[in-house]
Amino acid sequence: MDKREFKVLAVTLFGKIQISRHPTREQAEWRIRELEAEAERNPRGFTQYVIEPAESHG
Question: 8 Cβ partners below 8 Å, 6+ apart?
Fold first, then answer.
């Protein structure tokens, strides 16, 4: 069975940085909401968070 995962990436001026992996897109979206809320409290420059399908391990 092919298991699909999603990764949360921070996109900065210097490139993409993987933050976390999640088994469902919904969980990845929740993580982005948490990161954006934290960024509002402690701004450290412009960072955009995106979700991409993760490469399969197999």
Answer: 18, 19, 20, 21, 22, 28, 31, 32, 35, 49, 50, 51
